[in-house]
Amino acid sequence: QLHRRGFCCLHGVDGSPGMLERARSSGLYRELRRCVLGWDPLPAPAEHYDAVTVVGALGEGQVPTAAVTELLRVTKRGGFLCLTTRSNPSNLRYKAELEAALARLEQRGAWQKVLAQEVECWERATSEEESTQGNGYISGVVYVYQKCPVPPLKEG
Questions:
Q1: Range of the domain at 87
Q2: Number of structural domains in the chain
Q3: Cut 0.90: pTM above it
Q4: Do 26 and 98 fall within a single domain?
Q5: In terms of Cα–Cα distance, which of 30, 44, 117, 112 is closest to 79?
Q6: CA distances (Å), 8 to each of 2, 30, 97, 145, 148, in order?
Q7: Residues 12, 2: contact at Cβ < 8 Å?
Q8: What tens digit of pLDDT does each residue of 102-155 get?
């Protein structure tokens, strides 16, 4: 979808060599690097990307919420960050932590929320317990933030 809309200079990271190989075989990415979000710094200089997306990785037992500041670091001033997480019962604690981290960054003036949209049929549930709507799907949230063009004031 991104390529069809003119976004052709895509870079990707993943902690799994197998997933990187799968991404490489798609032919969609200009650059792919191994990086474990939350443990490794992103392999890019500060304020390098116009937009940063994380889809399918911000969840319980995956990428820690503290990694959001690293995503912000590599985004250009005025650039956008699009993040997603699930709203299923097993991810609610993580979702609350993530939303608290997002709100702290907004209160500091690091970015401005553009969108926080619930999506009812986000992805297929892996169990009946996870399908809160009883339709075989779990819900999720899409967050879009714009990095502030002026650096935030340092506290203290």
A1: 46-147
A2: 2
A3: no
A4: no
A5: 112
A6: 7, 8, 33, 21, 25
A7: no
A8: 999 999 999 999 999 999 888 888 777 777 667 888 899 999 999 998 555 566
